[in-house]
Design a protein that fits this description.
Blueprint lengths: L15 E5 L4 H12 L3 E6 L2 H11 L2 E4 L5 H11 L4 E4 L14 H29 L2 E6 L3 H4 L5 H21 L4 E8 L5 H10 L1 H9 L9 H12 L10 E4 L8
Parallel strand pairs: 1-2, 1-4, 2-3, 4-5, 5-6, 6-7
């Protein structure tokens, strides 16, 4: 039996949730989970057609958003908020050795993978602070902790997400707001499929061999952890980075 005022395990009834990059992959799985748990979900993505299709399936709202445009982020979140839960999931990678990248590449990767988390969180926090409740959940990557051959800028941006998460947790605990990060390993997503298409079966073997479980993860395995962190049952967890990677980086 749940304590008075505490929602049953995994329920988000009455909560308003925002998911960036929510049209496909991990973001779509998160949006589905939230909607099924009773939350009102805003799915934000550049791919508005796919976001709208998903929103129709799960009774959510879809909005066009370029997370690299901080002004657009502020406008969209002001229009559709306030939010109790913000999931900064949008991400983009570019598989290239660092010497092959350009300052323009760095700017794009930082804008989507790191600055977008700044912008969405900055827009949501005042209402959360006033309400005395909030959940900030940032999707980082095991590459942030292990580095990535051919992904130096992506890894650096995702490492910044971890430090940002801890800082937001420190600043906002007094308001009843928690901030946590999830670090996925190799997950079966369109972004991973693009990397495999570029590098072939060798890349796929390397990814699976880097895990103790010798398989790719599924988006739903990340989404279930996000649902837990968003729930009332995770109220005493903040400032943490949870690895969901099949034991990636632990050796054979």
């Amino acid at each position: 039996m749940s304590a008075p005022g505490r929602r049953p395990f995994g329920r988000l009834d009455g909560r308003r949730a925002f998911v960036s990059g929510g049209a496909q992959g991990i973001g779509a799985a998160i949006a589905r989970n939230f909607a099924q748990a009773g939350a009102y979900v805003v799915i934000a993505d550049l791919d508005i057609a796919r976001a709208s299709d998903l929103a129709g399936q799960v009774a959510a709202a879809a909005v066009y958003l370029d997370v690299g445009d901080t002004g657009m982020v502020q406008a969209v979140m002001a229009q559709h908020g306030p939010f109790d839960i913000v999931v900064n999931n949008a991400g983009v990678d570019q598989h290239a050795f660092f010497t092959e990248t350009t300052p323009e590449d760095w700017a794009k990767l930082l804008a989507v993978n790191l600055v977008s988390a700044f912008a969405c969180t900055h827009a949501a926090l005042p209402a959360m602070q006033a309400a005395g409740f909030g959940r900030i959940i940032n999707i980082t990557s095991e590459a942030a902790r292990l580095g990535s051959k051919g992904g130096a800028v992506y890894s650096a941006a995702k490492a910044g997400v971890i430090a940002f998460t801890k800082s937001i947790a420190r600043e906002n605990a007094r308001f009843g707001i928690t901030a946590n990060a999830i670090a996925p390993g190799p997950i079966r997503t369109p972004m991973l499929e693009a990397a495999v298409a570029q590098g072939g079966d060798r890349i796929l073997r390397a990814m699976t061999d880097a895990t103790l479980l010798r398989r790719l993860g599924e988006p739903e395995e990340i989404a279930d952890a996000v649902l837990f962190l968003a729930s009332d049952q995770a109220a005493y967890i903040t400032g943490e980075t949870i690895g969901i990677s099949g034991g990636m980086g632990l050796g054979a």
